[in-house]
Specification:
The chain is mainly α. The chain has one domain. Helix content is 27%, strand content 0%. The protein contains 2 helices and no strands. The longest helix is centred in the middle third of the chain and has 6 residues.
Length: 41
């Protein structure tokens, strides 16, 4: 397997420890306040 994608912003450390080489971290980069849930972003 060339790529293993798993994990998200809150658990990327565990994903890397388990061998992931592709981790989704969008919330950490784009929206840390989650204002989009309130309709403000």
């Amino acid at each position: 397997m060339d790529f293993l994608s798993m994990g998200m912003t809150n658990d990327f450390e565990v994903a890397v420890e388990e061998g992931a080489n592709m981790v989704r971290i969008g919330r950490a980069i784009f929206n840390t306040t989650q204002e989009w849930r309130k309709g403000n972003g």
